[in-house]
Design brief:
It comes from Streptomyces nymphaeiformis. This is Copper homeostasis protein cutC homolog. Belongs to the CutC family. One of its GO terms (molecular function) is copper ion binding. The protein is an alpha/beta fold and about 230 residues long. The chain has one domain: Copper homeostasis (CutC) domain (TIM Barrel, Alpha-Beta Barrel). Helix content is about 35%, strand content about 15%. It has an 8-stranded parallel β-sheet with strand order 7-6-5-4-3-2-1-8, with helices on one face. Helix 1 runs parallel beside helix 8 and helix 3 packs parallel to helix 4. The longest helix is centred in the middle third of the chain and has 13 residues. It starts with 5 loop residues before the first strand and ends with a helix.
């Protein structure tokens, strides 16, 4: 991948994946069931998308809405299936009831991932202590990205946090790339780019027709041009 800003797009199926890649996406996040904010897709869906496009795919590991790990044995089983099918990048992240990182669940999963790159998703925006979470996860193998809006309510409210965290890049716990997503709009980009942020994640913004409609190649292209501006 080049040094240009990263544009990641949510894809539910092959049609989405092809449109996103053609529009200029650098990477896809693969999920199913956006009514539950994105769950683990089937292995068959992963395989079909992998055959359809040649950009990196990050596969969600999450079996129920919310940020509790739930059935960790089932999650481990799905991760093993996806690894066997050729998946090499993942998205995961779980909190305990008191908002602390669920290290038991996370560590069991990354043992199966065996060094694969992975994103800690927006569970960070619900954490009791963002800085503490980052420092507790700092030494976990493969963690190279945090998907975050800076606030549970979205980028509008999270801009100050995103700027502050971007300014700490390279400090312990702040080495992973910040991937901005969650209520992200085009008008946020100048502020985010000025802060040094260079990775962006879109879902609904790539689907002008809503989640029942496919990814729009043209919508992705508009975002590609905007993040490159």
């Amino acid at each position: 991948m080049s040094n240009r800003a990263v544009l990641e797009v949510i894809a539910l199926d092959e049609e989405d994946a092809v449109a996103a890649q053609t529009g200029g996406a650098d990477r896809l996040e693969l999920v199913t069931d956006m009514a539950a904010d994105g769950l683990t897709p089937s292995t068959a869906t992963f395989t079909a998308i992998r055959r359809a496009v040649d950009i990196p795919l990050r596969v969600m590991l999450r079996l129920a809405d919310g940020f509790a790990a739930g059935d960790v044995d089932a999650l481990v089983g799905r991760a093993e299936e996806l690894r066997a099918a050729g998946a090499t990048e993942f998205v995961l992240g779980f909190l305990t009831a008191d908002g602390e990182p669920d290290l038991v669940a996370v560590e069991r999963l990354i043992a199966v991932l065996d060094g694969c790159d992975w994103t800690f998703h927006r569970a960070i925006d619900r954490a009791a202590d963002r800085d503490g979470l980052r420092k507790r996860l700092a030494d976990l193998p493969g963690l190279d990205t945090y998907l975050t809006a800076g606030a549970a309510t979205g980028v509008d409210d999270g801009l100050p946090t995103l700027r502050a965290e971007a300014a700490r890049a390279g400090e312990p716990g702040y080495e992973p790339q910040i991937l901005v997503g969650g209520g992200l709009r085009l008008d946020h980009l100048p502020t985010l780019r000025a802060a040094g942020l260079a990775a962006f994640h879109i879902g609904g913004a790539a689907r002008p027709g809503g989640w029942t409609a496919p990814v729009s190649e043209e919508a992705v292209r508009v975002w590609r041009e905007a993040v490159d501006a």
